[in-house]
Amino acid sequence: MTTFPKIETMFAAKALVSLGPRDAPSGIVKSAAPAPWRILRDGLAGDLQGDLRHHGGPEKALHHYPRDHYDVWAKEGPELVEALCAPPAFGENISTLGVTERDICVGDVFAFGSALLQVSQGRQPCWKLNARFARPDMARRVQTSGRTGWYYRVLREGVAEPGDRLERLERPLPDWPLSRLNELLYLRMLDRDALAQMAQLRELTPSWRELAARRLAHGVVEDWSTRLVGA
C-alpha cells in the first residue's frame, strides 16, 4: 500500500468567472475550501462548475494536479510565474508533491478520509487554460508535455479533513500509468495494438474507451482544434 503526503488543503471554485471572447463561465479559479470536505459523487461540495458537459460530473469528480510541475512550468516560461503559477492555478481540487502521471495508473483506488476514489482518466486540456494563463498555446503545451494531472470518480462518498492522506488500496492496471495513456493519446496516436488494449480497460472512463475504438475503426485521429483553441 502506497501512502501519499498529508493533504492540508483542498480547493474549490466559490464563484464562476468569465473566460474568452464569449465570456464562457468557468470554475477554474479556485481557492482553499473550508474543512471538513464533503466528497460527493459529482465532486467536492461547494465546488462550482461552469460547463457541466465537459467539466465535473461522476467521471471527473475531483481533479488532482501535481505540484511538482509548477517548478518545471516556471523554468520553461518565467512569465507563467506571474500568471498565478502556484496551486490551484490549473483549477485543481488536490495538489501534492512527489507523485506524477508516471506514478498513477488508470483504475488506482484510494481511500481519502471516509471517501473512496478511483482514477478515471487524465485531463484533456482545453482552451480555458489559454485564457487562464494569457497564452494562446497553453492548452497544447499541457497536452504535449504530458503534465495534465488526472481525475477521480467517487466510488464511495465521504468526508476528509486536513491531515488525511490518499492511501492507495488497489492497482488493477499496473501496466497503464497515465504517462503511457498520455503518450498514446497525443504522441503515438495510431498504435493499433495499444488502442485495442485501451478500448478494453473497464476502469477507464467510457468516453475514452470509445475514443480508442473510433481511432481503431477509422484509422484517423479526432480533431482537437475546438478543444485546444476554442470555437
Polypeptide structure, described:
This protein has 231 residues and is of the alpha+beta class. Helices cover 26% and strands 25% of the residues. The chain is built from eight helices and 14 strands. The chain has helices at 68-76, 79-82, 128-133, 138-145, 178-186, 192-198, 206-218, 225-229, and strands at 3-7, 11-12, 17-19, 24-26, 31-32, 37-40, 43-44, 62-66, 94-96, 109-112, 115-122, 150-156, 158-160, 164-170. Strand 6 and strand 7 (43-44) form a beta hairpin. The model has no long low-confidence stretch (mean pLDDT 93).
What labels would you give this structure?
231 residues; alpha+beta; seven-stranded mixed β-sheet; three-stranded antiparallel β-sheet; 8 helices; 25% strand; globular
Structural class: alpha+beta
Give the helix proportion (percent range).
25-40%
Q: How are the strands of the biggest sheet laid out side by side?
A: 1-14-10-11-12-8-9
| Biggest sheet descriptor | 7 strands, mixed
- Rounded to an integer in angstroms, the radius of gyration calculated over CA atoms is 17 Å
What's the tally of helices?
Answer: 8
Principal-axes geometry comes out as globular
The proportion of residues in beta strands is: 25-35%
| Mean pLDDT level | 93
Oligomer: single chain
What letter string, H or E per element, gives the SSE order? EEEEEEEEHHEEEHHEEEHHHH
Distance between the termini: 44 Å
Low-confidence stretches: none
